[in-house]
Amino acid sequence: MIETLIKYFSFPFVRYAVIVGVLIALCSSLIGVTLVLKRYSFIGDGLSHVAFGAMAIAMVLHLSSNTFLVLPITVLTAIVLLKSGSRARIKGDAAIAMMSVGALAFGYMLLNVFSVSSNVSGDVCSTLFGSMSILTLKASEVWLCGILSLLVIAFFILFYNRIFAVTFDESFMDASGQSSKAYNYVIAIITSVIIVLGMNLVGSLLISALIVFPALSAMRLIKSFKGVVITSAIISVVCALGGMLISIIFSTPVGSTIVMMDIAVFAIFHVIGMIKGR
Amino acid sequence: MSYIEVKNLSIGYDGIPILENLNFSLESGDYLFILGENGAGKSTLMKTILRLIKPISGQVRFDDEAAKCKIGYLPQQTEAQKDFPASVEEVVLSGTLPHMGSRFFYGKKEKETARVNIERLGIENLRKKCFRELSGGQKQRVLLARALCAADKLLLLDEPVSGLDPLATEEMYELTEKLHKEGTTVIMISHDLNAAYKYANKILHLSDEGFFFGSLDEYLKSSEGFNTQEEEGRK
Questions:
Q1: What is this structure's pTM?
Q2: Helical ranges in chain A per DSSP H
Q3: Mutate which of B62, B88, B97 to disrupt the A interface (most A C-beta within 10 Å)?
Q4: Domains, chain A
């Protein structure tokens, strides 16, 4: 077992993959706390499906690096969704459902009609559920992932207090002359960045799990915002790291393994929470 | 010019007015109760005064003194706050953000402001407690402490006693009265006529037919006040 790991880690691309994986997991858990508490988790889910559609376009167009097309499309969708959803929540909800299922169908259609490889279902599967593709990341993509993740983390630390305020109470923030709107847009943009980055790791269907589970687990037990943020970051990093190592050793799919870990942690925290009686 | 002056104000959403041609003015140190049925536009009016909503027409004007001071706002609690993991201290501290300018982190001054207001509202013992586990009355105190961190000269309270038991309601009114006596201008939305008679010096009563604005004495003599007293009596 240890030998397998040592063998794998002697390859630089494996080390890159693990570093990028941990960074993405960290980012998604940070933004996840805000999304879950603001009742925006469904936006994350919708966006990941849109990202799948965008990915299909990129594949059909034979782009060398998919991220450069997928990222702008997803960011744009996030802004549109927020704009339409901020006034009437229910309408926004339906709009997201429409958009996400539409993007899925559209993407699958594209990939089938303009079949770019002999193995369409394999491509679809790896886009949706992730694959070992994180091990085949190009150096440029690793750099992009790394830099974007560090930017997200830096933003989160610097604006931590304001993120708390906008998450807890938008109207109070607006009333005292600060613009919650601006922060909402930044949060939406960051969410789409994380989703696009995370697609490489766990695929577009599973990225929501990376966003939602650590925050929900932490919320079972922890009673302060700072505590929840820190705990969910730790949970996410541990699960991502553990999941990647397990998937290397037992050659299971990376994405599903990480999500299984997250689910297990959630179950444990949930049970402890119940025992502690709340 | 008055401290706050509302002139020919029409308010509503999406260009559809709920209330039209509203006129009233407040002086510094006033205690205004906004009364009226559900849906009469009380919260909408408050949000318009706070500039969260644009007026359809007309204007809300603050004099130089009022414009300078930040507003302390106690909104109705949102759905999201019911299971929000946050300590009392974190919530109160977030009230100091408007004074932070472009700084990122809380400094000594912000922590001191939070401490003073936590003491002022007698919730020192709750500092480390989780907001979602507090009783309704305790939550309102915490949110009031947060509002006071933002401002202590002008307070806008949107139904601060809704959902509170009689004791907590009484405490909330006493606290507000204390702040008012210390020189705070208060605008409060409420359904509670008895409290209005006891604490307010000005009344704004909104209804479908129009609105009444005047001092408490004028209100008691007016038909609106008379009618509502009658209704109260019949209940």
A1: 0.87
A2: 2-9, 12-37, 41-60, 67-85, 89-113, 120-129, 139-158, 160-168, 170-175, 180-202, 207-221, 225-250, 254-275
A3: B97
A4: 2-272 (1.10.3470.10)
